[in-house]
Design goal:
single chain, 3 helices, 4-stranded antiparallel sheet, Immunoglobulin-like, alpha+beta, 3 domains, Glucose Permease (Domain IIA), globular, 289 residues, 10-stranded antiparallel sheet
């Protein structure tokens, strides 16, 4: 009987030891997982999570970045850019998937903004509604602009510190809107700089020309620069264009001259920023005047 007790006692000790080893291994595994989760590198972000806002980011090479479930183009060095439209609201979900399988995710509130709304009544109807032939030409112009912004190049010029493209008074801001004879018009998506005709327009950052049209119906002389990753500058109402499609320009290079071409009430530059088809506020790129 004592021998049996010793046998059972020995088995119990062995079973307990095995359970202890398994438990310790599981605990160690959990600790490693928790350590990995705590050490997941956060992407470096700068910018504005707001309507019209622009956000620049950088993460590790060969990671995958998704905004609201949609992939964001990443450079070889892990740089990326994205932004939010004028009327976007709610939350933005940013997810980074790392090459080792780790993930980083965070939600950001998109801050609302108040925009200047103007009501103008008593205008001649032909001023408010163009005739069919003019509308057809406008649609043709819009298609040309759309095609010029479909490029998704590998350039990373968007990482440069942008400078003002022209000297002059700020006469119009992003997001403002006019209601003509009770009909809401499309919001203004640019930053206007008023200056005399012939005032130089320079590249706010390096880029490649994807469109140079001297005579569009609404925007007159129109120029588009590709800064990379679907990030574009567009310049409207130009009196003269000094570059051509396919040409590479450096920041500060002369690209055109301010004018009053197209549907403009006076000489000024209308500078616009797009991330793909999302219209962003150029004011977030340069210091206030």
């Amino acid at each position: 009987m004592p021998n049996l007790q010793r046998i059972f006692s020995t088995k119990t000790l062995v079973r307990a030891a095995l359970i202890s080893v398994v438990a310790c291994a599981a605990f160690a595994s959990l600790n490693v997982h928790a350590k990995n989760a705590a050490n997941v590198p956060e992407p470096a972000l700068r910018g504005h999570f707001t309507q019209g806002g622009i956000v620049f980011g950088k993460t590790v090479r060969q990671a995958e970045v998704l905004l609201n479930g949609e992939p964001v183009q990443l450079s070889r060095n892990g740089e990326f850019v994205f932004g939010f439209g004028r009327d976007e609201e709610g939350q933005a979900q940013l997810l980074v998937k790392y090459p080792n399988g780790d993930t980083w995710q965070q939600s950001f509130d998109i801050e609302p903004r108040e925009f200047n709304i103007q009501r103008i009544d008593g205008l001649p109807q032909q001023t408010v509604t163009p005739d069919p032939d003019v509308l057809a030409e406008i649609r043709k112009n819009n298609e040309e602009v759309w095609l010029a912004r479909q490029v998704r190049s590998e350039y990373t010029h968007f990482t440069e510190s942008f400078i003002w493209p022209a000297e002059g008074r700020v006469s119009g801001v992003y997001g403002s809107q006019r209601i003509l004879n009770g009909n809401p018009r499309a919001p203004h998506y640019g930053l206007d700089v008023a200056a005399p005709t012939g005032t130089p327009v320079i590249a706010p950052a390096s880029g490649v020309v994807t469109m140079a049209n001297p005579a569009m119906v609404l925007s007159g002389g129109t120029l588009i620069l590709d800064h990379g990753h679907g990030f574009f500058s567009t310049f409207l109402h130009l009196h003269a264009i000094h570059v051509e499609v396919g040409q590479t320009v450096e920041q500060g290079d002369l690209v055109g001259e301010i004018g009053a071409t197209g549907r403009a009430t006076g000489p000024h530059l209308d500078w616009r920023i797009n991330w793909g088809n999302v219209r962003l506020d150029p004011q977030y790129l340069v210091p206030e005047r």
